[in-house]
Design brief:
The complex is a heterodimer of chains A (115) and B (113). Chain A is an all-beta fold and 115 residues long. Chain A contains no helices and twelve strands. In chain A, strands 2, 5, 6, 10, 11 and 12 form a six-stranded mixed β-sheet that branches. A four-stranded antiparallel β-sheet of chain A has the order 3-9-8-7, with no helix packed on it. The chains are: A mainly beta (115), B mainly beta (113). The A-B interface holds A 4, 6, 32, 36, 41-46, 49, 90, 92, 94, 96, 99-108 and B 4, 6, 31, 33, 35, 41-45, 48, 55-56, 59, 91, 93, 95, 98-107, 109.
């Protein structure tokens, strides 16, 4: 079985500062990894995904994430955040051996960008 | 190109009533997933359907909950005899094929009084 842990429930940061949102997973099989963003009262939007290949993945809105197999991590980073990045961020995994593709989500991290 | 549509966006029911949540996948998508988000928690997988088939319902509560995805029309998540603990946001996602990126709808926020 797979599980996902997002180590920080809330991350406050000032505008234009860098940010890292941490995600660790556990799985006995290879996984696909995802980051989604959820703005208030909206659905989830895909930021980026890792399926295979280069461990550094670039996504939308200037976000990127690095897959580290030895540390079973997939941390999300942005070098300079904007007020509009304030939202809930979810890390998710899907086992590549799964016959369903269902996503297992972490608990979420609230990013609060302050002016 | 419309995204995943869900309706209603907000639904209020009294204990014991039935709730019916609808999901229209993106055009061309035949794979639908339902997830539930309880307050202050992440999303939890409920069920995965393809047209006319339930593929994986391992996340569905054993009683009162059912889902369908008919040949024609939207996917329906049905909750019978709702209880206060059913209050949550229910999200639908669709994908073009198995293992492809899942695109999420805006969700239905169910409140049980």
């Amino acid at each position: 079985a797979q599980s996902v842990t997002q180590l920080d429930s809330q991350v406050p940061v000032f505008e234009e500062a860098p940010v890292e949102l941490r995600c660790n997973y556990s799985s006995s099989v290879s996984v696909y990894l995802f980051w989604y963003v959820q703005y208030p009262n909206q659905g989830l939007q895909l930021l980026l995904k890792y399926l295979s290949g280069s461990t550094l993945v670039k996504g939308i809105n200037g976000f990127e994430a690095e897959f580290n197999k030895s540390q079973t991590s997939f941390h999300l980073r942005k070098p300079s955040v904007h007020i509009s990045d304030t939202a809930e961020y979810f890390c998710a995994v899907s086992a590549d051996s799964s016959n369903t593709g269902k996503l297992i989500f972490g608990q979420g991290t609230t990013l609060q960008v302050k002016p | 190109n419309a995204g995943v549509m869900q309706n209603p966006r907000h639904l209020v029911r009294r204990r014991g009533q039935e709730a019916r949540l609808r999901c229209s996948p993106m055009k061309g998508h035949s794979h639908v997933y339902w997830y539930r988000q309880l307050p202050e928690e992440g999303l939890k997988f409920m069920v995965y359907l393809q047209k006319e088939n339930i593929i994986d319902e391992s996340g569905m509560p054993k009683e009162r909950f059912s889902a369908e995805f008919p040949k024609e029309g939207p996917s329906i998540l049905r909750i019978q005899q709702v209880v206060r603990g059913d209050s949550a946001a229910y999200f639908c996602a669709s994908s073009l094929d198995f293992g492809d990126t899942q695109y999420f709808g805006p969700g239905t926020r169910l409140t049980v009084l």
